[in-house]
Structure formats: structure tokens, C-alpha cells
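Lecture notes, part 5. Sequence design as translation. It can be helpful to think of inverse folding as translation between two languages: the language of shapes and the language of residues. The source text, in C-alpha cells, appears below.
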């Protein structure tokens, strides 16, 4: 009996077969998708963390005091300031421009000896009224000496921007009473607290007392205008209102002049004291103490001193008003406006969004109309935000607001009260913008409540509304809060609609204050998002404003995170209370 022998399978064919089986098994188990999805998630996390780290590093370092360095330059005036950037470059003809021929030849020779590769520093020099610029590039081949002067002062002024220079004396009433830097600094520290008190007293008079007088004058003018509209320009009540307004105006004008006299006296007292500062080019300048917000010999500060300056600057940023075209000072009005607008928007959008979702999920019968509404809501989320701003301006401001002015504030016309942008119209506009963000999660949360709970409630004799109120809504609250969290995150960062319906560069009065009726929904307001735009694109010096852009961005992110953390904490508490809810 003969045996049939099989031909051996070639080694290469067996290897290919096993590789094919392994590949088939790999794709059938979905392992490549695990790596693909995990890699995509990791990339997203890296991008988000990278962005946050960039904003945090750049924003948190804005207020840290940097050393003032003095650069002596060949063939040019000395430079004193903060080094904010370093880079390496190849010098060209422009690097030697503006120098005489001999100096230019010497600079070229220095650059060639260094291999035509130079390092240069971007120095923040300030002293704009003297130099006409905020920054200067300094190349290493033109520097003959570099030092950190002991008595170099960094002075932050109320007007005119920062000033850098070396302290050379102290002036009282036009007479220099100290010429030695140590003695001049001691006199500065002695007199500054009283000067600051007088500055605050002046601001209080301007803000409170003169503001009260101006409001009273405006009330008298409106009273006369109201009498003219109600009784006619020549009626007896109108003449009586004019006489009363004239008498009242005379008294108010006398009070106004008295307050102006008090302000001028405070200003004269502060103008008596001044710091004598020598800038890098040798120019001596007198800085009145009334213009000084803060001054310090930065090169003498240790770690504790720098931390103290950093804390004072940060506190000023959070609690003071902006100055110098919003590039300096604080952002308290913008913080207040952002939080107020976001909270009012949330209070407006959540009830409407929940009611709409309740109707769609619990009451409406499925059909073409309901499907069309759901499609419209989903598409509404993709409409550009500026479209909502145009709608808010046209409908809320020009139609609703103008109608309110005609009915209740006719004496103010043609100056609008509600017929222009304000915090109320801005909140309503953003409520429309974020409405889909609330409706969709709320509807999903209502759908996630088990049907057995509804049926059990009906079996016990409860009505539909009783079932919704006592069974469905409590268990859907975590999902409703999820929608509110998303609305807060979306609305707090919007800028384009606010530019049309209420956000302004500077708002001297807050929407909520101590003057009756205490809440002023018609007032314009400042917003951190608009403040960032204004600093970045409308500032007279965008380079100098860049640190404040990062700092304000960091603050806006922090406020949004804080609002979300509060809402998330409430949602977590409700989730623990209703463990059966599925959101």
C-alpha cells in the first residue's frame, strides 16, 4: 500500500498566513481604534493644557517687578528700562543707521568680529513724553557698559504711563530739600501716605458729592421738561417748575463751586511735593507725588519686597478702575459687569429653556411640527453670534427699548434710556444665544427619567403636572444644571453681540450701586471679553498691552471656572440626592 505524501508548505507562505491571521484578529478586535481614539484624546488634552499653561505663565508674570538695567551705547544715548525679550539676529544696514560714519564703521567692525551674529534685547523704556516710544532694541555690539543702578526707580503714575529714572532729589514747593537719594527716598515715604489720602478724598468728592449735584441738576431739568410735555410750555405749572428749578439750580451751582474749591485746594497741596528723577539721557524731570500710584527702587528689592509689590499690583488689578486707555490700573468694573451679565443671562435662559424642553418632551405630540421645532433649535446653535447681536440691537434696543422710552421716559428724549445698549438687553440677547444649549440637555434629562416612575405616580392618582413637578423635574435637575453650566461657559466668553447691545470701553457707573433705585438695567457695562479685545486691538500700544491681555484672559477663565464649579457642586449634590436619575 502506497502512501501519498503531502508537499511541504514553503516557509514564506506560512509566515504570510500567520501575519494575515494576526492582522485579521487585530482589526476584528478593534485595537487600532483604541490607539486612534486614545491618541486623539491625548492630543486634545495636550492642546488644552498647553493653552492654559501659556495663559497662566504669561498672565501670572505680568505684575512681577523686573530689574531696571542701564545700557551705555556707542554713539547713542543711554537706555534704562526692563528687558522683556531676547533674541539672536544677523545685523544689517538698518542696525547701523542713525550713527555718524566713524561710529557706524566701529559698530560694523564689532559685529564682524562676532561673526555677524548678534544678540539684542527689547527694553521697555517708557517715559513716553520724553522719548516718544515705549520700547527700544539694544544690540550687544553697541553696548559699552551695562549695569543695574541702585537708585533706579520704577514709578507708576495716574496719567502718562510708567516712568523710569534715577532718584536725584526731593522737591517741596519748588525748593529742593534733599539731593542725596537716600534722604529723598525717606522724605518720599514720609509724605506719600498723606498725599494718597488727599487723592482719595478728591476722588470721593468727584465721584460722590459732585455726582450727587449733577444728578440733582439733571432731575430739575427733567422736571421742567416733564411739565412742558404735560401742561404746555406756557402753562402755570410749567412756569412754577421753571422758577423752582432756577432757585434750586442756583443753590446747586453754589455747592458745585464750593466742591471745586475743595478739589483745587487738595490738588495744590499735593503739587507741592515732587520727586526729582533723572532719565537715562540726563534729562531731569519733576514727578508730583499726586501723580504717583506706586514707586520703588526695584534693584534694591529682595524676594519679600518683590512679593509685596506683586501682591499690591494684583490687588489693584482686582479692586481698582482702569486708567491709561485700560492698559493700566484695575478691571473691577469689567469683573462686576461680566458676573452681573452672566448671572442675569442664566436667570433668564434657564426658565425659558426648561419650559420649552418640558413642552417638547412631556406635552407635544410627535409629528412634523415638533420635528421641525427640534431641527430649528439645533440649527439655532450654529447661527453666528453676531447675528444675535444685530437682532438684539434691532429688536430689544430700537423697538422694545424705544417704546419704553416713549411711554415712561419721554422727558429724557432724544437721549435714550432703554433705547440703547444696556445690561438687560445684553443679557436677553445672550439668553437667546444660549437657549439651545439649555433646551437640548434638559430634554435629554427629562427623557432619562424612567417611565416606571411616571406610571407609578399616575397609578397613585397624581395628575400629569403633579407627576412632572414632584417626580420628573427633581430627577432631571442635574441635567438642567448641566445645560446651565454649558450656557454660562458659552455666554461668559461671547464678545461680538455685546459690542452692539451694551458693552463699552469704559463705564464710569456700575449697573448696581447705592443710588436709588439701586438696580439700573439700562446702563452700559464693561465686560472682560470686550476688555481683552480692546487691549489687544484698540490700545495705542499693543506691545505694552500684551501682558495685560494675558492677565485679563487668565482672570476671565478663572471667573468662568468658578461659576461652573459652583453649578457643578450643586449638580453633584442633587445627583447624590436622586441616585436613580440618569443624566
Amino acid at each position: 500500500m502506497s502512501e501519498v505524501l503531502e508537499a511541504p508548505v514553503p516557509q514564506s507562505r506560512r509566515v504570510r498566513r500567520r501575519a494575515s491571521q494576526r492582522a485579521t484578529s487585530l482589526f476584528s478586535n478593534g485595537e487600532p481604534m483604541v490607539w486612534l481614539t486614545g491618541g486623539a484624546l491625548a492630543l486634545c488634552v495636550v492642546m488644552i493644557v498647553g493653552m492654559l499653561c501659556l495663559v497662566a505663565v504669561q498672565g501670572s508674570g505680568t505684575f512681577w517687578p523686573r530689574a531696571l538695567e542701564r545700557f551705555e551705547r556707542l554713539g547713542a544715548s543711554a537706555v534704562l528700562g526692563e528687558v522683556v525679550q531676547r533674541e539672536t539676529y544677523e545685523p544689517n544696514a538698518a542696525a547701523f543707521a542713525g550713527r555718524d560714519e566713524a561710529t557706524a564703521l566701529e559698530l560694523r567692525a564689532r559685529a564682524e568680529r562676532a561673526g555677524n551674529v548678534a544678540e539684542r534685547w527689547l527694553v521697555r523704556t517708557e517715559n513716553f513724553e520724553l522719548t516718544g516710544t515705549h520700547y527700544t532694541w539694544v544690540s550687544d555690539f553697541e553696548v559699552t557698559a551695562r549695569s543695574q543702578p541702585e537708585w533706579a526707580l520704577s514709578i507708576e503714575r495716574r496719567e502718562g504711563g510708567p516712568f523710569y529714572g534715577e532718584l536725584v532729589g526731593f522737591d517741596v514747593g519748588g525748593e529742593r530739600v534733599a539731593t542725596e537719594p537716600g534722604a529723598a527716598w525717606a522724605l518720599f515715604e514720609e509724605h506719600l501716605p498723606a498725599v494718597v489720602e488727599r487723592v482719595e478724598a478728591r476722588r470721593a468728592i468727584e465721584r460722590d458729592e459732585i455726582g450727587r449735584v449733577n444728578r440733582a441738576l439733571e432731575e430739575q431739568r427733567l422736571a421742567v421738561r416733564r411739565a412742558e410735555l404735560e401742561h404746555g410750555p406756557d402753562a402755570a405749572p410749567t412756569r412754577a417748575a421753571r422758577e423752582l428749578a432756577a432757585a434750586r439750580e442756583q443753590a446747586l451751582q453754589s455747592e458745585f463751586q464750593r466742591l471745586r474749591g475743595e478739589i483745587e485746594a487738595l490738588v495744590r497741596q499735593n503739587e507741592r511735593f515732587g520727586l526729582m528723577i533723572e532719565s537715562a539721557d540726563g534729562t531731569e524731570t519733576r514727578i508730583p507725588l499726586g501723580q504717583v500710584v506706586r514707586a520703588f527702587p526695584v534693584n534694591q528689592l529682595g524676594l519679600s519686597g518683590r512679593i509685596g509689590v506683586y501682591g499690591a499690583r494684583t490687588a489693584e488689578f482686582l479692586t481698582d478702575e482702569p486708567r491709561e486707555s485700560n492698559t493700566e490700573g484695575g478691571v473691577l468694573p469689567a469683573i462686576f459687569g461680566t458676573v452681573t451679565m452672566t448671572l442675569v443671562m442664566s436667570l433668564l435662559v434657564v426658565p425659558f429653556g426648561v419650559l420649552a424642553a418640558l413642552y417638547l418632551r412631556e406635552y407635544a405630540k410627535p409629528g412634523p411640527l415638533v420635528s421641525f421645532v427640534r431641527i430649528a433649535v439645533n440649527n439655532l446653535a450654529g447661527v453666528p453670534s453676531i447675528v444675535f447681536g444685530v437682532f438684539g440691537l434691532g429688536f430689544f434696543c430700537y423697538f422694545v427699548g424705544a417704546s419704553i422710552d416713549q411711554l415712561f421716559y419721554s422727558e429724557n428724549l432724544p437721549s435714550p434710556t432703554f433705547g440703547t445698549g444696556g445690561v438687560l438687553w445684553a443679557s436677553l440677547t445672550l439668553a437667546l444665544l444660549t437657549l439651545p444649549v439649555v433646551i437640548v440637555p434638559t430634554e435629554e434629562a427629562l427623557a432619562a427619567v424612567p417611565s416606571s416612575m411616571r406610571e407609578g405616580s399616575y397609578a397613585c392618582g397624581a395628575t400629569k403636572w403633579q407627576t412632572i413637578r414632584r417626580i420628573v423635574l427633581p430627577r432631571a435637575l442635574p441635567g438642567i444644571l448641566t445645560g446651565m453650566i454649558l450656557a454660562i461657559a458659552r455666554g461668559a466668553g461671547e464678545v461680538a453681540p455685546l459690542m452692539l447691545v451694551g458693552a463699552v470701553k469704559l463705564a464710569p457707573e456700575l449697573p448696581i450701586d447705592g443710588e436709588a433705585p439701586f438696580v439700573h438695567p439700562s446702563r452700559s457695562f464693561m465686560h472682560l471679553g470686550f476688555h481683552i479685545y480692546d487691549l489687544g486691538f484698540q490700545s495705542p500700544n499693543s506691545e505694552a498691552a500684551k501682558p495685560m491681555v494675558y492677565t485679563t484672559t487668565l482672570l476671565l477663565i478663572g471667573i468662568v471656572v468658578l461659576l461652573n464649579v459652583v453649578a457643578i457642586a450643586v449638580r453633584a449634590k442633587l445627583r447624590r440626592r436622586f441616585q436613580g436619575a440618569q443624566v
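The translated text above is only one of many valid answers, since several sequences can fold into similar shapes. The first strand starts at residue 69 and ends at 73.
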